[in-house]
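writing this on my phone so excuse typos. first protein, seq and then structure
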Amino acid sequence: MGLFANLFARSEPVLSDAASRDAAAIAGLHAASFRRGWSEQEVEGLLTDRHVIAHRAMLGSTMVAFILSRLVEDEAEILSVAVARARRGRGLARNLLDLHLRRLAGYGARAVFLEVDEHNTAAIRLYDRAGFREVARRPSYYPGAGGKAAAALVLRRDLV
């Protein structure tokens, strides 16, 4: 019975550092998650940048989420976060964000910034629960459906 139960057990994604070998998987997940996906070359360029910190969530050999930030001095900017559609709403983004923020703090980040589309309610809720606060707004930043652009909310969280 134990073997049979293991076959149907829900496995949880494993969180770890991402590296340049993950460029294709990150680019694919990014393209599936955003209007303008990053190319594999763009992602590889980020992953080889000494200022970029990256984490991934793997379910077996499949990448199901990632997060990338750029850290300069004591400030970081989250560049992108994506979770595979089939894995959304299960707390994976929160777990990945928590790990990432702890790592950024360990590297000396005192503040973390990010931009999010004003209509991305799931992401805004995630960041709000993680302690981020709106510090600015960029009107008409993201192209929208029907030609109506959306504002980018600039959020900040202090880590000290």
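second protein below, same order as before
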Amino acid sequence: MKENQNISIQYSSYSHISDLDDEDINLLKNAVEISNDAYAPYSEFHVGASVLLKSGEIVSGSNQENAAYPSGLCAERVAMFATSANHRDKEMQTIAIYAASETTAKKQISPCGSCRQVLVEYEVKQNKNIKVLLMNSSKEVWEFNSCRDLLPLAFDFTALKKQ
């Protein structure tokens, strides 16, 4: 018997960064700043990601491309892996992601599938949601309360192990 199902997510949208609270504005500004350090000679797509820890510390990363594709790494994973490697016991509260490209100035950009899976993995690891802020070069912001909103059918090996 066929039964139709539905998956839905919720997010908030803001027409401009100035509509957010100071903490989120600061984190997004940090992501914008770090996007300038992106090494993107092939795509010319500069991305910055900043992770806010519960302690108030910010860990950032930018995308790093390589001629031996796919040896590069997206900004989101650079930031998350740096956070885990250098602050392994500290809770991640928010990740702010900024993408700048002349061709996508008016579009909202979201993390690739690999980055979405990594984001969810760290959320599962700490057993607490990580807020996601996405901002384009027009300074429009989308806010998600959980990384799972970006990948509702994420692979969760820990859940499989418990069965």
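The mean pLDDT is 92. thats all i got for now
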